[in-house]
Amino acid sequence: MVTKTKKMFKIIRIIVLISFLSFSKGVISQNNTSQLNATHRTYEIWDDQPAPNRGKDYSRIQARGYPTDSDWEAHSYPIGNGYMGANIFGRTDMERIQITDKTLTNGAPYGHGGLTNFGEVFLEFDHYEVKNYKRSLNLNEAILNVSYEYEGVKYTREYLANYPQNVIAIKLKASKKAKLSLTVSAVVPYLRSADAYNHSGETIENIAKYANTTAQDNLITFAGNVPSFSLNFEGQVKIINEGGKLIANNENGSNEIRIIDANSATILISTGTNYELNEDIFLQDSTELKLNSKIFPHKKVTEIIENASLLGYKKLKESHLKDYQNLFSRVNLEVSPSVPNIPTKTLVENYKQDASDIYLEELMFHFGRYLLIASSRKGTLPSTLQGVWSQYHVTPWSGGYWHNINVQMNYWGAFNTNLAETFTGYQEYFNAFTPKTYQHANTYIKKWHPSAFVDSEKGNGWAIGTGSNAYHVNGSSGHSGPGTGGFTTKLFWDRFEFTQDTTYLREQAYPALLGMSTFLSKTLLATEDGKLLVDRSASPEQRHNGVHYMTIGTTFDQGFVWETYNDLLKSAKILGTNDPFLEIVRNQIDKLDPIIIGESGQIKEYREEKKYGDIGDPKHRHISHLCGLYPGTLIDSKKPEWMEAASTVLDFRGNKTTGWAMAHRMNIRARTKEAEKAYEVYSEFLRERTSPNLWTVHPPFQIDGNLGTMAGVAEMLIQSHEGFIELLPALPKAWQTGSFDRLVARGNFEVSLRWKNSKISSVKILSKSGGKCSIKLPNTKGVQLKDRMGKQIVYKITDEDIIEFNTKKSGKYFITIK
């Protein structure tokens, strides 16, 4: 009995000891992380009224004569899953759901193909004089809600764009049984009518589109073709009612389904074309032969709708939330002390009058991440100039990919805001068009640098011009130099630096860098003083004396030769590659002379300029000669005279410009560490380029402004391009207290931070790949570094107040500053 009692007490002591140790471990962990696990706010874009319904505004013609539907552009709310997008208006009389599919194009503009409106779905409720109306887009969930009361019944709608099942799903409910009645119809816009062509400036043959719409049982089908591209398309709208009945009607061309006295209903929308992303699309020059006209998307679209129907709305919603929140919820950012309870349009209008409420600055960052997820996913075409949304017949600038800054800007924030997966869409697109760019390089070098030409398939590298889209990629441009390709490969190197994915580096980034370096090396002209300058060089879109100015050795081109060479050499070292061509790069890189300071204290845009503004538009939207500062790394704090000269250029250039160009200025100011000037341009951008629905305009709407400023906010809070992590490098006074979670630094470090009165209080580092971590701090006195168990970690302090310490893969490290 005594023995059993002793054993029992021994067991109890062990249990107590284990409990105490577990509690102590929890206390240590809590002490380290209590300041670093804030509850995420719910971010909504909302209004207390539906989007207005004023129709197209032909008095405001933008971008080569495209009529602007200001209600679509400024007041509709966008949802998307990368494949397709929808704009929701939230109306109670006749709801409009405008659908875009990135693979549906016509021949406009330029005959190479351009994004075009896929279809319009209408829900006719005939509800007028409603009460307690609200429509809201929840960014945390990517779900759009509409709710209101009408004749004593509360009506609700939920809209989502599901990526895993590639379907748009809508749930409609009424608070009372048998009270849900509406008519569902679908229209393919811009068929052969006068309205389709009056304002497009294109020939009818290029933009002609044909379609038929039918309604049968619970399914509306709209299908057709675009002859100029042998493009077949189909959309299906399926209705699943709970209670009540459905009546399909095709009389007098109505093509509608009536929902009568239902309790609730689910509407599913799917789209498809015979487009298939592959190298043949780009290698085939004839537009009529790019696609197989005998392939129709009916089976594919039908399977999507049927599979979604079998899952049901509840499981579709669960699938959507799991997928989307895995991406969106990674990052939290708070700089505003509170969330104002006012409609977003009022928030925007108030900010234009008085920018003291900084919540809009925070909300726009999160909206940018939402838009990137919605418009670019694996297996989809990348985010276009308009993301995945276009109500146009002829989309401005084709809704394509413009490689002299716009498409790069779309992805600048993908890596540091923890959305690297969204870049996969562009990588897949690049892989498909790359074979064509090797042909372009052969053509270019043979024509302009015949002495350097090598008669082999890839011997001259690859070359890309400014414009491209789902069907075509340009080989050269009259207004942007060869450095355009280096502008593009910078994205590939950045993806590696942020993810540390050596497989990606070996299979994707290194070959791209090697091919581009090969091409650029053949464009260099040796001068008498030993320099190597790009021959036939241009600073994107600049004009002098009314024409695009071609010269030798612009800062844009010289800078991106240097960036590409530098990234290639770093890649080769990591991979242990010893390609013979690398010796040529090593010999050439120091002869590029990429940065020259002029008489006005400016970084010269052209070697032959003396004072600022001698050549070109002094207020030009592009600041291409500063790309070596951002997104490049040629100019950094180790070269203060270059940093100062870059700042001087921005002072001369000014902030009054297009939306995306303001975003670039914001990122440059962040890199120069001029916090208040970076904040000034961001604030000005929000006041002058932001619509009530938070879409931003060039004008017209372009998504690069949204995504570029998103990157800019992150760049103001964390930088890592100089070999160390710098925290709050451009923190403005307006953001004196705040926090962020899981922004990413190069080296694949997830960083979480708290600051108060502009001083850092605590930092958390998650080392996802292991390796040495270097962090620059305002001062290193009183710094404590611990691991997740509360154990002190030894670190080294450099002369520049940088602490360095070794990390383990998946290790968590906590820094407190007293």
TrEMBL record:
Residues of the Glycosyl hydrolase family 95 catalytic domain: 312-717
Pfam families: Glyco_hyd_65N_2, Glyco_hydro_95_C, Glyco_hydro_95_cat
Gene Ontology biological process terms, A to Z: carbohydrate metabolic process
Gene3D superfamilies: 1.50.10.10, putative glycoside hydrolase family protein from bacillus halodurans
SUPFAM superfamilies assigned: Six-hairpin glycosidases
Ranges where the Glycosyl hydrolase family 95 N-terminal domain occurs: 46-109, 116-276
GO MF annotations in UniProt: alpha-L-fucosidase activity
Keywords: Signal
Boundaries of every Alpha fucosidase A-like C-terminal domain copy: 719-815
Name of the protein in its database record: Glycosyl hydrolase family 95 N-terminal domain-containing protein
